[in-house]
Structures are given as C-alpha cells and as structure tokens.
Write a structure and sequence with these properties.
Layout: H1 2-17, H2 21-48, H3 55-71, H4 77-90, H5 95-124, H6 128-144, H7 146-156, H8 163-171, H9 176-203, H10 210-226, H11 235-246, H12 251-279, H13 282-290
Length: about 290
C-alpha cells in the first residue's frame, strides 16, 4: 500500500515537473490583472458616490482582503469587512458609503455570475428552467426594492448614513454609465478566470475546448461561492478534480491542474495578501476591526 502511494506521488511530481513555465507565469499575470480590474470597478462605484480614493490604495485593500478571505470561513466573509474598514480608515470614506460601495459591486457582479450559473446548470441540473426563473425573480426583486435592500444591508453591516449619503447610494442605480461599466468590468473579471484556467491546462499540454473550460470554470466559481471552509479549502479542490475527471481527464492530470490553479488562486494570493497587510498599513486597520 505504501509503495503504491509513493508511486502515485512520483507520478504527480513527474507531471508537475513538466509544467510549461511561460504558461504558468501568464496564468499568474492574468490572476493579478483581474485584481486591477476589481480595483477599477470599485473606483468607478466610489466616484459615483462622490469619493475619489487613490487607485493603488484600492488595489492594496483588495490584495489584503484576499488574504482575509483565505483564512476566514464562508465566502468573502472576512475580506469584505476588511475592505470596508480599509477605505474608511485610509481613504477617508464614511463607513456607510464604503459599505454600500462593496454591496453595489456585488450587485453588479450578479449579472455575469447569473449568466455563468445558468450556463453551468445546463450541464449539471435537470431543472435549468426553474433555476432561471428563480434567478430572474431574485435579481428583479433586489432591483425593484433597491432602497429596502440598501437599508437592510446597512443594518446587517451596522453602518449608519445621513440623508445626503443615502441619496448618493440610491442615485447609483440611476447612473447608467456606472451600472453598465460595472457590469462590463465584472464580466471581464470572470472572462479572465476562464483565460487563467485555459492557460493552466495549456501548461500541461492539454488542448481542451473553450466551452469545456467555461463549464469547468463555472464549477470552480460555484464551489468557491458555496464553500464554508476558509478559502474553500478541501471543497474547491475536491470539486474541481471531480469536474475535470467527469469530463474525461485522467486523475493524475486532474489533480495536477487543480494543484497549480489553487497554488495561484489560494497559496500565492494568501502570501501576497499577507505581505501587503503587514507592509501597507493593514495592521492598523486590523487592530481597528478588533477593537470595540
């Protein structure tokens, strides 16, 4: 039994040792380019609220928030709170506005995520029509009852705003440039996720079809959203390996692709985020979060 485990381990090392370095480095570049897109989208939303935070301050807060997401349970639970506190303390944005800027970002994300979710359900669900109707109803209710949704979100985050700040928040929905720009930027972020996965598979000499890469990327996205463990550890890896093998990849290649993808999106991002947190004022924000 031990001999079999050692042999299997050697097989994984041999496969990983044949990874194409240029494709691997390109995948890392694409990951951090998507972080810049996140920051551009956030800056667009904040400008719509009348706040102009330095771009690289937003980038640093996002990198640090990735670290927090990777060490706290539930998807984005710790990172979003850190982002809100970061720009409130270091960017001079009132807490209520910073809270709603993050909430509004998530609303803008619902469009591409919903589209990707529906595409994925065509492959994994026997009732795509029901899911489509439920999704449309949920998004429509949020949009129609936007003011109620805003007030509930503020109560959840325990943030208070005055009437002027509330008007800035509510006016975002009427700003078509911000809404359309945010949706396009959100879509490009998820497109870059697909490109990153494609580059990782190419690094192993795999020439998978683009539709297949899209479906695998959707599965990876959904697993990350529903995972309860810090950074989705265990759940994302198992789900991604299972999805890849379901579509015909040998287990050795499926595990190797997953290891490289998670090295970029979890291990490396955790290290970079931790360094940013320590060196860019994140400790001050962290102490403020822990104080009463």
């Amino acid at each position: 039994m031990i001999g079999g485990i050692l042999e299997e381990g050697r097989n994984y090392l041999l496969v990983l040792g044949r990874v194409s370095l240029p494709y691997f480095l390109l995948a890392i570049f694409v990951y951090y380019f998507s972080v810049l897109i996140y920051a551009i989208r956030w800056k667009l939303v904040l400008r719509g609220m009348g706040k102009d935070v330095p771009f690289f301050e937003l980038v640093k807060s996002i990198l640090a928030s990735i670290f927090m997401n990777n060490i706290t349970p539930m998807s984005r639970s710790g990172g979003e709170i850190l982002r809100i506190a970061w720009i409130s303390r270091r960017g001079g944005v009132p807490f209520g506005l910073s809270t709603m800027s993050v909430v509004y970002e998530r609303i803008l994300e619902t469009v591409p995520v919903f589209v990707l979710f529906l595409v994925g359900m065509l492959y994994f669900s026997s009732m795509p029509g029901v899911l489509f109707v439920l999704g449309v109803v949920a998004v429509a209710l949020i949009w129609i009852r936007w003011e109620d949704f805003v007030r509930i979100s503020l109560r959840v985050f325990k943030a208070s705003v005055d009437e002027e700040e509330m008007e800035k928040i509510l006016s975002l929905r009427r700003s078509h440039n911000i809404t359309l720009g945010g949706i396009l930027l959100s879509s490009s972020i998820w497109l870059l996720d697909v490109v990153r996965l494609k580059l990782i598979t190419l690094a192993f000499g795999l020439h998978l079809s683009l539709p297949l890469i899209v479906v695998v990327s959707i599965a990876n996205l959904l697993l990350g959203l529903v995972a309860l463990t810090p950074g989705g550890v265990g759940i994302v890896e198992g789900g991604l390996v299972g999805t890849l093998t379901h579509f015909g990849l040998p287990i050795t290649l499926a595990v190797s692709v997953t290891l490289v993808e998670r090295f970029i999106s979890y291990v490396l991002s955790t290290i970079v985020g931790f360094v940013v947190l320590l060196t860019s004022g994140g400790r001050e924000v962290w102490r403020a979060l822990k104080s009463p």
